[in-house]
């Protein structure tokens, strides 16, 4: 009986595989087990790899004849938490098919899109069981918590992973189910905390106000100094940013980015202009420094007349290709400490890991390697044709502002590049209540991946 991807993804969506919450560890493990058992039943040699957190599914299906190409498919089966639960119109783990969409937590990130890849592959293999292509599946359960177990897994299997020709995945976005984006780059990320310490305890604001510098004031001054005219105001911050190519600006212009509608949907009255780039360009091509948390002093009801002994902020930096995360961290740390006014001391924590940015430039474009890797070029050529054939329009090639740090690690350790076909869209409510996935997108993507495997196997 042919594999039914819509039926099976609904089975997976019933499992609350929330990796961030230890209370769901058993459910994450159950999801991995159900997934791996299904893959094994379809003819793959499957292994459920234990980690200190959540299992990794590894599966292989090798050709009986010398393979013309070897493909590694990546995805993740873990999902985001469901808070706030009261905002959901339907129970998040009771999948439903309504109004042309599949509803449920994980439907768009990443169980639905990966099922398109896997389902298209199975359609191809059912029709071409002797196809000269080797396939591996690497499906993790920790992507939503920054993949802490993957570095060890990758390094322990470096030789095996390096034997493949490229990675295929669908964990990025597109404009719609008729305008597909092939993601060519992802920003890296690093995050850290800063504490601003003043007096050795909270003190009376009447007795000492105006004489002792308030750590909240010091923090506000430092934080405000880190940006100017929309850009990060730290010497050297932009020195190693990847050049912005004309073909990228042309493809960005093809993407439907309506500033007025975006401002309306976000409830803001303007977007920040960064240098001479439009917001639609800067979001994809420039690094960013953001404050993701801030606090200090009395937080309860009413007022309390104290100067707090300390304040804190949380900083997240999105890196772009060619930037060195450690170097950027040291530049920002130095600026914070030097700009902290006398009377308060700034303490900058180490980052919670540094995920580098990733970039792969398609063939025949400025910045692409020359000579271009033959099999990677073959895949990109097939992708262009198959997207147009199955979605109705040529793809747009764009860098994306989000991050999948795992891909830069895979590139560093194995040399493998990733071909990323975006399948979720702005309508899908990723990481939010009422997540859903377009059934039109799903069927087109299944056909697309079937056609893609057909093309690259020849």
Automatic annotation (TrEMBL):
<protein>
    <submittedName>
        <fullName>M20/M25/M40 family metallo-hydrolase</fullName>
    </submittedName>
</protein>
<keyword id="KW-0378">Hydrolase</keyword>
<keyword id="KW-0479">Metal-binding</keyword>
<dbReference type="Pfam" id="PF07687">
    <property type="entry name" value="M20_dimer"/>
</dbReference>
<dbReference type="InterPro" id="IPR011650">
    <property type="entry name" value="Peptidase_M20_dimer"/>
</dbReference>
<dbReference type="InterPro" id="IPR002933">
    <property type="entry name" value="Peptidase_M20"/>
</dbReference>
<dbReference type="InterPro" id="IPR051458">
    <property type="entry name" value="Cyt/Met_Dipeptidase"/>
</dbReference>
<feature type="domain" description="Peptidase M20 dimerisation">
    <location>
        <begin position="184"/>
        <end position="343"/>
    </location>
</feature>
<dbReference type="Pfam" id="PF01546">
    <property type="entry name" value="Peptidase_M20"/>
</dbReference>
<keyword id="KW-0645">Protease</keyword>
């Amino acid at each position: 009986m042919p594999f039914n991807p819509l039926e099976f993804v609904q089975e997976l969506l019933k499992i609350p595989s929330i990796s961030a919450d230890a209370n769901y560890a058993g459910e994450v493990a159950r999801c991995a087990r159900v997934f791996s058992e299904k893959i094994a039943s379809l003819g793959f040699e499957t292994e459920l790899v234990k980690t200190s957190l959540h299992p990794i599914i590894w599966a292989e299906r090798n050709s009986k004849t010398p393979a013309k190409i070897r493909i590694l498919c990546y995805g993740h089966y873990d999902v985001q938490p469901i808070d706030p639960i009261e905002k959901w119109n339907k129970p998040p783990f009771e999948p439903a098919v309504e109004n042309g969409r599949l509803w449920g937590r994980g439907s768009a990130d990443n169980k639905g899109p990966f099922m398109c890849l896997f389902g298209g592959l199975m359609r191809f293999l059912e029709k071409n069981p002797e196809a000269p292509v080797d396939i591996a599946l690497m499906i993790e359960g920790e992507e939503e918590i920054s993949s802490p177990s993957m570095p060890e897994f990758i390094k322990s299997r470096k030789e095996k992973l390096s034997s493949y020709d490229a990675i295929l995945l669908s964990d990025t976005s597109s404009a719609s189910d008729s305008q597909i984006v092939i993601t060519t780059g992802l920003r890296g990320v690093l995050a850290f905390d800063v504490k601003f310490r003043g007096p050795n305890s909270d003190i009376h604001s009447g007795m000492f106000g105006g004489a002792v510098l308030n750590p909240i004031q010091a923090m506000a001054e430092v934080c405000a100094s880190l940006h100017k005219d929309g850009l990060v105001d730290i010497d050297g911050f932009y020195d190693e940013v990847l050049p912005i190519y004309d073909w990228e600006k042309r493809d960005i212009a093809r993407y439907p980015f309506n500033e007025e509608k975006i401002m309306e949907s976000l409830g803001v009255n303007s977007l920040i202009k960064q240098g001479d780039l439009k917001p639609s360009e800067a979001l994809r091509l420039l690094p960013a420094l953001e404050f993701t948390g801030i606090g200090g002093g009395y937080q309860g009801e009413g007022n309390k007349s104290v100067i707090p002994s300390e304040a804190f902020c949380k900083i997240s930096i999105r890196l772009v290709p060619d930037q060195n995360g450690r170097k950027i961290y040291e530049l920002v740390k130095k600026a914070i400490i030097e700009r902290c006014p006398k009377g308060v001391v700034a303490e900058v924590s180490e980052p919670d890991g540094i995920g580098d940015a990733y970039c792969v430039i398609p063939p025949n474009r400025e910045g692409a390697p020359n000579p271009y890797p033959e099999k990677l070029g073959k895949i990109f050529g097939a992708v262009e044709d198959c997207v147009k054939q199955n979605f109705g329009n040529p793809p747009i090639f764009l860098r994306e502002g989000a991050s999948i740090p795992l891909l830069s690690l895979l590139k560093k350790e194995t040399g493998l590049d990733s071909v990323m076909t975006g399948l979720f869209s702005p309508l899908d409510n990723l990481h939010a209540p009422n997540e859903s996935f377009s059934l039109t997108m799903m069927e087109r993507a299944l056909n697309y991946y079937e056609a893609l495997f057909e093309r690259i196997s020849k």
